[in-house]
C-alpha cells in the first residue's frame, strides 16, 4: 500500500503533535501508577 506508507513516512504536524501528547500522557500515567 504505497499511499499508506507515504502517510506513515510523512505524517502531518498535527498528527505528530497528537502522538507526542499521547506519549507524554501515557508516560505520566505509568509513572503515577509505578
Question: What does this entry look like structurally?
Answer:
The protein is an all-alpha fold and 34 residues long. The chain has two helices and no strands. The protein is rod-shaped, with a radius of gyration of 14 Å. The mean pLDDT is 70.
Explain the layout of strands and helices.
Layout: H1 2-9, H2 13-33
Beta-strand percentage range: under 5%
Derived structural class: mainly alpha
Terminal CA distance reads: 40 Å
Compute the average pLDDT. Answer: 70
Count of beta strands: 0
Low-confidence stretches: none
Helix content: over 70%
Number of helices: 2
Main sheet specs: none
Shape by Cα distribution: rod-shaped
Could you state the order of secondary-structure elements as H and E?
HH
Work out the oligomeric state of the chains in this entry.
single chain
| Spatial extent as radius of gyration | 14 Å
Quick structural gist:
With 34 residues, this protein is an all-alpha fold. The protein has helices at residues 2-9, 13-33. It is rod-shaped, with a radius of gyration of 14 Å.
